[in-house]
Design goal:
Helix content: 40-55%
CATH topology of the largest domain: Rossmann fold
CATH architecture of the largest domain: 3-Layer(aba) Sandwich
Strand order of the largest sheet: 13-12-14-11-10-15
Strand content: 5-15%
Number of domains: 4
């Protein structure tokens, strides 16, 4: 009610009968009172909203406010009272300012760009109060969710959860556009001011997502397929072996929210609960996610005995099998896949790639007809999408292995709706050198052409020839490879890994998808220690697709 709202300005309290610096808006809040200063009306106040000048609110005024007062000191650059001054008086205040160097920055950047985005995208003829309220509710809803990993990285802490120090989202939160703009657009359509109504708001959100995540367009059909498998009851139980890792937990929250899979976390329940609370996540163990406790699980007897049966002629005793099963998390996950307790495996956020591959090889093994594993990464660059293989597995593969890797990588690209154009790379350019690697790549080309004659492939060639058709045509006009190659097969893992990391880093904000593990007899993928939350989410969706393809 208006009687609970007291307005003050440079002249003091707005009261009935005041004539200086008055206007109709102020007159609406005029009180019948003898009070003339802010200090006269602040006693017992629940909220202070300042849009005035620095130093207006004094420490002694804060002291007499109601319990747990909300102080919005929004004057810039100096707020009505500095947070450290207010908190020196009492420790129960909840405070926001307009400055970025204090918690809870109230700034137009949180809403204006996204209000305009939603309004313009539906051709709104005006911005209505309902559209403004929709933006407010969208911001409020986001504030109560866990902090995004991008925000946590920008502010140097993952310890951001709703409370006195985190009342509103940070300006860097990439989810703002995906929450506010659709809410505003919906309000405009419901209010009858939209001249271009959107037929599908979910599709609109996906469109906006592409401005936030560079992998959005590439992953859109993958996410759609994964969600469909979940809805249809397909294979979607994906085990994450580093379940206690912060990035994995945040990724699993996204996966649960977007219904991309049914996650299984390998982790100690007490640690999982503690970290879920610490990071402000909403995951409920046993409801949103299944848990496999590495310290005790009734299935472990079957797991370790099966492992021993697989490895008893490779130097593993019963006792070793029992111990390994409790301390090797990827071994647990691989056994869950083998025995049908999970449909797919995502591991590798912590530890060395080959350590994880060892357990996948021992338990899941190679698919029929496969003789080697390999890793393929896809880079979504500004001007092109490029896949590289082998980036993590084979130190110095033979020509036969190169050929197998090439065909497997090309098949994976085809499944991702990318038409493979393959270049076999070398420091020799179409026979210009006599190096062993050049000869190996030429031999691999012959094998590929024999085993996959339909594949568009050529080599051996330099990297610039692979990407520059004009240069390639000047050197070898008869090359069957047309356009720019999008699958670059390297002669050894050093070349593949170095090229991948250089391209990924030099490309700045561009995104890597992968690594894809090629050759496994099941849906299993090994991340790297540099994996981001978004990359983990992407690989989980891809693992769901793989699980159902393998089925």
């Amino acid at each position: 009610p208006l009687e609970n709202v007291w307005v003050t300005d440079i002249e003091g309290v707005v009261y009935e009968g005041r004539t200086t610096l008055m206007d109709p808006d102020k007159a609406r809040y005029a009180q019948k009172t003898e009070a003339r200063k802010l200090a006269d009306v602040i006693d017992g106040a629940d909220v202070f909203l300042g849009l005035s000048a620095g130093g207006v609110l004094k420490a002694e005024m804060v002291a007499v406010m109601a319990p747990r007062p909300l102080i919005l000191a929004l004057a810039n650059p100096t707020p009505e009272i500095l947070p450290e001054v207010a908190k020196a008086v009492r420790d129960d205040i909840v405070m926001a300012t307009g400055r970025s160097d204090y918690p809870n920055q109230v700034n137009n950047v949180l809403c204006f760009p996204y209000i305009f985005r939603g309004a313009l995208d539906v051709g709104a003829t005006t911005i209505t109060p309902e559209m403004e309220k929709a933006a407010v509710y969208a911001i409020a809803g986001l504030a109560e969710e866990e902090a995004n990993d991008v925000v946590a990285a920008a502010y140097g802490t993952y310890d951001l959860s709703f409370g006195p120090e985190y009342l509103i989202p940070k300006p860097f939160d990439p989810r703002l556009i995906m929450r506010i703009a659709p809410a505003v657009a919906r309000a405009a359509m419901e209010g009858g001011v939209a001249t271009r109504p959107l037929a599908d708001l979910d599709a609109y959100v996906e469109q906006l997502q592409q401005f936030v995540y560079h992998s959005g367009a590439f992953m859109k059909p993958v996410f759609a397929a994964a969600k469909q498998w979940v809805r249809d009851g397909g294979k979607s139980r994906i085990v994450f072996t580093e379940g206690e890792d912060e990035r994995v937990l945040r990724a699993v929250q996204v996966i649960v929210d977007e219904k991309l899979a049914k996650p299984i976390l390998v982790g100690r329940p007490s640690v999982l609960l503690s970290r879920i609370e610490k990071f402000g996540l909403r995951l409920k163990l046993g409801q949103d996610v299944e848990v496999c406790n590495p310290e005790y699980d009734e299935r472990f007897h079957q797991y370790w005995t099966t492992y021993w049966e697989l490895m008893c002629r490779r130097g593993i005793t019963k006792e070793m099998a029992r111990v390994e099963m409790r301390r090797r998390l990827t071994l647990i996950g691989a056994m869950m896949v083998r025995l049908g307790d999970a449909d797919g495996l995502v591991c590798g956020a912590v530890g060395a790639y080959h350590d994880h591959l060892r357990f996948i090889d021992e338990v899941i093994g190679k698919k029929p007809g496969a003789n080697t594993y390999a890793a393929m990464n896809i880079l979504l660059l500004d001007q092109r999408t490029v896949a590289l293989a082998d980036t993590h597995v084979n130190d110095d593969p033979s020509a036969e292995q190169i050929a197998e890797i090439t065909i497997a990588a090309a098949e994976e690209m085809t499944r991702l709706n990318l038409a493979p154009k393959v270049a076999l790379l070398s420091r020799s350019n179409f026979g210009s050198g006599s190096s062993a690697s050049g000869a190996k790549m030429r031999a691999a080309l012959d094998i590929v052409r024999e085993q996959a004659p339909e594949l568009e492939v050529d080599g051996e060639m330099h990297g610039d020839c692979a990407l520059d058709e004009g240069l390639r045509q000047r050197i070898l006009p008869s090359s069957p490879l047309k356009g720019s190659a999008n699958l670059l097969v390297c002669p050894n893992v050093d070349a593949g890994n170095i090229a991948y990391n250089l391209l990924k880093t030099a490309a700045g904000g561009n995104v890597a998808v992968g690594p894809f593990l090629l050759g496994a007899n099941g849906a299993a993928h090994i991340l790297t220690s540099s994996a981001t939350v978004r990359r983990i989410v992407n690989m989980a969706a891809l693992t769901v697709i793989d699980a159902n393809r393998e089925a």
